[in-house]
Amino acid sequence: MKIIDIYNILDELSPFELQEKWDNSGLQVGTFYEEPENVVLSMDIDAELLERVPANTLLIVHHPLIFSPLKSLNFSEYPSILIREMIKKNISMIAMHTNFDKTHLNRYVAHKILDFESAICDDFICYYDVDMSFEEIADLVKKNLNLPILKSVKTKERIKRVALTTGSGGSLIKEVKADLFLTGDIKYHDAMEAKAVGLSMIDIGHYESERYFAEILASHLKKYEIEVIITPSKNPFEYL
Question: Is the pTM of this model over 0.85?
Answer without folding.
Answer: yes
